[in-house]
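Narrative summary of target 7.
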Amino acid sequence: MFYHARWTRLRRRMIISHKFRYIFFAIPKTGTHSVRQALRQHMGAQDLEQVGLFVQKKFPFPEFRDIGHGHLSALQIRPVLGEEVFSSYTKFAFVRNPFDRFVSYCAFMGRNSNQFDSDPSGFMRYVIRELRPFDHLLFQPQHSFISDADGNMAMDVLGRNESMQASFDTICAITGMPVTRLDRVNATQRRSYHEYYDRDLISRVSDFYRRDLELFDYRFE
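Modeled conformation, tokenized:
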């Protein structure tokens, strides 16, 4: 039987910068640790962040009082900030190839039991076929964090995990932030995601993350 890892160790940040007039949406498992570190270097005194785990900071909004992480969606934050702020601030997030992201998710889930390391494809099949943890924050499709009520993209800029520095440079240019060289943070030594898949896994992951694949123009390459 597979061990079901705990789901509580989340430390992603949403940042609202009044100084540079942006909202950063932290999509889980998109590899943005270095981006968040860079953003924090330039935060102003009135800027806000919501983060859990090792650092505890929360937005001063009662709607999020009981939420212990920073993975808030556009649907959650828009009515709280108000239409004027939400529409006028630059909204950005980073996305990742869903096939690569699913490998990262499974590695995270199996980290305590060593099951991913010992049989990665077997553990991935178990997650997508049997476990199917729809209520787990890290399993949810990326578009659910950054779409509006009609399912349309609510972001002004989308960075890509595969070109993190170039994407961040673009975001800096748009928001007026100083260009910052991203550090290599929390990098893993896993093989290319292609090596973890067979045809059945490709089909199942494609089905579940189909909207992400279409919206962000990703494929199994």
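The chain has one domain: 14-216.
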